[in-house]
């Protein structure tokens, strides 16, 4: 990890942070998992409504171009191995950078095991 560079692995939120980083020359690298879906909302709806989901998917957005529109550097990748090559370049640039990683919408971790894990963890805390 380069000193002074912040890396933020994120889903597709946080545009206000990008413009602030550009305005203040803060070297931040965002790695965005772009699945054209509100993954957590989709999983919550599946959990509560069965497979009926409402307004959780949207047209694919080129987040690298959005980043460029905000004054940051933007890259878009479609294959996982591209990140390994691009991340050091993004860090070395010293500029606010967004790496838009296209991912399969169905590769979002399911909510139910996550919630179960939280419940199991809270039970362990109760035992202490």
UniProtKB/TrEMBL annotation:
<feature type="domain" description="Thiamine pyrophosphate enzyme TPP-binding">
    <location>
        <begin position="19"/>
        <end position="101"/>
    </location>
</feature>
<dbReference type="InterPro" id="IPR047211">
    <property type="entry name" value="POXB-like"/>
</dbReference>
<dbReference type="InterPro" id="IPR012340">
    <property type="entry name" value="NA-bd_OB-fold"/>
</dbReference>
<dbReference type="GO" id="GO:0003676">
    <property type="term" value="F:nucleic acid binding"/>
</dbReference>
<dbReference type="GO" id="GO:0003824">
    <property type="term" value="F:catalytic activity"/>
</dbReference>
<dbReference type="GO" id="GO:0030976">
    <property type="term" value="F:thiamine pyrophosphate binding"/>
</dbReference>
<protein>
    <recommendedName>
        <fullName>Thiamine pyrophosphate enzyme TPP-binding domain-containing protein</fullName>
    </recommendedName>
</protein>
<dbReference type="InterPro" id="IPR029061">
    <property type="entry name" value="THDP-binding"/>
</dbReference>
<dbReference type="InterPro" id="IPR011766">
    <property type="entry name" value="TPP_enzyme_TPP-bd"/>
</dbReference>
<dbReference type="Pfam" id="PF02775">
    <property type="entry name" value="TPP_enzyme_C"/>
</dbReference>
